[in-house]
Amino acid sequence: MLEEIAERLYVWREPVLDVNATVVVGDTAALVIDTLSSPAQATRLASAVRETTTAPLQLVNTHFHFDHWYGNEVFAADHIWAHRRWDITAQPVAAAISDYGHAGAGFADELAGVEPIPPTDAVPTERTLDLGGREVTLAYLGRGHTDHDLVALIPDAHVAVCGDLLEQGAPPSFGDAWPLEWPATLAALGSRLSGSWQLIPGHGAVVDLSFLHRQHSELAALEWLCREGYGDDRSPAELAARSPFNADHSLVAIRRAYAALDGRLP
């Protein structure tokens, strides 16, 4: 169900993969930020949205991972916003089924029925959308969870929608990440927020600025562990035991950091 966390601003927390969608309602338009993992999930979300507003809808996909955009087809949206580096080929349906089809009863069948609808409008660095009496700024602040994470800032509500740049309840996901740059990206986000803000992570419960600062500190510690370990020619496995995160997640991050330092990542 939709939970109103600020005036006309709602969060849908989907149990499968604990992923979040956000709905921002203005006087003349509404914005759905991330559309969940499947048409079945998105249909439930869309029904709840239409109980809240009849305004025309626009969509935002914070990044290309399937659990944030496979519901696009359910919404009749003229505009689907994403960063210009967003790549529809990066995680095809077959890969999502193979990796995540076991996440819930019938989930693999839900994924098999997906008709991927990619974004229609690119955000190079920043774009402000006018929803009628309410503005939402979409901003690219640097590489982190991917090379194209968008955040959405709703200043009048003091809410920031962070995608998977923030995760609550599980370690950050590093499979497509830039561990050496992620801390700076979170610092850039934090620099735009002052006072009391609610932050909606890609997964998990709504958090506050203190959570952002903690996750930034952990990622910064991992960054410098990677830089110093690379300089000392230490193995990723040796470093993983000293990471702020669990060893399996950390190995993925350290190997990507070493690849970046070697120049093997573009």
UniProtKB/TrEMBL annotation:
Ranges of residues in domain Metallo-beta-lactamase: 18-203
Superkingdom assignment: Bacteria
Coiled-coil annotated spans: none
Signal peptide: none
PANTHER family, alphabetized: ACYL-COENZYME A THIOESTERASE MBLAC2 (PTHR42951:SF4), METALLO-BETA-LACTAMASE DOMAIN-CONTAINING (PTHR42951)
Protein name: MBL fold metallo-hydrolase
Species: Fodinicola feengrottensis
